[in-house]
Amino acid sequence: MTSLALIRGLARAGATQRAWALFEAEGYEARSQDSDALTLKGRLLKDRARLASGPERVRLFGESESAYAQAAALEPATYPLINAATVALLAGKGRRAQALAGETLALLDGGNVKGETPYWIAATRAEALLIMGKTAEARAALAEAMKEAPEAWEDHASTLRQFESLLTEQGEDASWLDRHRPPVSLHFSGILGVAPDDALAAAEVDKAVLAIKPGFGFGALAAGADILIAEALIRQGASLHVILPCPVELFRAQSVVGVDAAWGSRFDALIEAAERIDTPGDYDILSPATIGLADEMAMGLALRQARMMDSRAVALRLRDRADGEGSVTEADRLWQRAGDRLVSLPVTRAIAAPSLPDAPDLANMALAAVDKAADVRLKADWEGECSGHRVLAFADPAAAAAAAQTIAGEQSGGRIGLDYVAADPAGPSQAPLERLLLVMAAGRCSIPVATAPFALALALHAPQFHCEPAGEIKANIGDVPYWNIWASRA
Fold first, then answer.
1. Can you spell out the DSSP letters for 84-102?
2. SS3 of 482, please?
3. What are the residues whose beta carbons fall under 8 Å from the beta carbon of 220, sequence distance 6 or more?
4. At residue 326, does pLDDT exceed 70?
5. Most buried one in 137, 178, 286, 448, CB count within 10 A?
């Protein structure tokens, strides 16, 4: 039986109709004495209402209010009660909304806040006050909520989306919410060969980062542009997330001190200051394919972070001034296709970029594993098998995700695994195939499951898909995180 937690995960990922179909199929809709099921029912009906219009929208908001109110009657709690108040207002029932908001305040004043954090207690009070038309008091209460958890960005984003809906319904100005929005997520990259003592470049980078005001930075730490930007991020208090294409020591030897030994200590300091360091795939070589894979993951992380927090993603690129204004890379095209802002900053290259040591000729490939018996006719760029399973390879992660959705639709109950790797174009080696099958084994309910490299690359290549972390697989190769993949918000 599909759990409420899995259906809730579908809802959070935006797969509203799929979540509702599972909710109905598993019989949860009929559980009129189950407060958890009723609360989730209210959430799903609210999400469906937001996708609807006209009388259908009003009807669904009304049904959502009823479900939330039933949950609160069974087990008095502020969460279902404040949501009942909000959807009542969105259904056009202002008096009912204010009455429910008043009941919510009474629960808060009576200390009936079991299981709620200080942030949610204050945010719930602010929402109730807003519904009651006490905007000045609501603004003050929301400011207090933000002080309770200043870096709870996902919670902030959820609250602000709710407030924006309420203010729009009330015909009120929502611009005052902007001061509370989570900060920008920055993807950074650029050229090698900037001189370590280029004070002008460092000053220009500081100026650019200050103008963007990022709270989070995602990228590598190669000598030159990467290190200059990462240092600016740290100076300005941003959180640094480093994604390297190979182990730290190998990357340091080839892409840092291999360019200029003066960058070594600065790289070490940034590694120490980074909040997180990832080396996806455990590749023991540095090649254009592994560099590209790590860069796509970094871009995907920035995009995902921004979308999850209802904020913005910006890319900062340091260019060789000699290339002129019109130079555009494939990474730029991918970023711009995802629809986010790109800032280009020209700097002077002091030395030519060093060539990479000889490495195997690899290409980035998106892999999909399915049961061998699956009767699916799909054209892939490569096809093989591993341990009795079919493996399809695609040059484009979006094509692999689309194929997985087709397979999920045609093969109900089958398992589907996805990965994104740097591999021999003639076919992947055994190691990535073993990881792919590990992830495939974690799948269920015809929901494709993917590795982190695939899920993050998909945020860049095909943002219409939605990915959510689902757990970790314990294996002899270490812990392997896996993600659920859903097709759309509909």
1. HHHHHHHTT-HHHHHHHHH
2. strand
3. 189, 226, 242, 243, 244, 245, 251, 255, 291, 294, 295, 298
4. no
5. 448
Asked if residue 455 has pLDDT above 80, the reply is yes
Number of other CB atoms surrounding residue 486 within 10 Å: 22
Q: Looking at this protein, which amino acid is placed at residue 20?
A: W
- The encoded tokens of residue 370 equal 């399915």
pLDDT tens profile 46-67 = 999 988 899 999 999 999 999 9
Strand segments, DSSP code E, in 291-362 are 313-320, 341-347
3-state helix, strand, coil split of the chain in percent (to 5) is 55, 20, 30
The pLDDT of residue 424 is above 50: yes
Residue 194 CA to residue 385 CA, distance in Å, equals 46
Residue that wins the pLDDT comparison between 314 and 447: 314
| Comparison of pLDDT for 13 and 17, the residue scoring more | 17
Mean pLDDT, rounded, for 292-319: 93
Q: Which run of H or E residues covers position 323?
A: none
CB neighbours of 37 closer than 8 A, spacing ≥ 6? 4, 28, 29, 31
Residue 300 has which token pair?
């995907």
Per the CB < 8 A criterion, the answer to whether 112 and 121 are in contact is no
Give CA 261 to chain center in angstroms.
Answer: 36
**What kind and span of H or E run contains 171?**
none
Beta strands 313-320; 184-190: pairing state: parallel
Higher pLDDT, 233 or 353: 233
Checking 469-474 for CB contacts under 8 A at 24+ apart, the result is 470/9, 470/442, 471/442, 473/438, 473/439, 473/441, 473/442
DSSP 447: B
- Work out the burial of residue 200: count CB atoms within 10 Å of its CB; fewer than 13 is exposed, 13-18 middle, 19 or more buried: exposed
Per-residue DSSP letters for 14-60? T-HHHHHHHHHHTTGGG-TT-HHHHHHHHHHHHHHHHH--HHHHHHH
Helix, strand or coil, per DSSP, at residue 284: coil
User: At CB < 8 A and 24+ separation, what contacts does 175-181 make?
Assistant: 176/139, 180/142, 180/143, 180/146, 180/156, 181/156, 181/157, 181/310, 181/311
How far CA 470 is from CA of 5, 8, 15, 296, in Å, comes to 11, 12, 15, 21
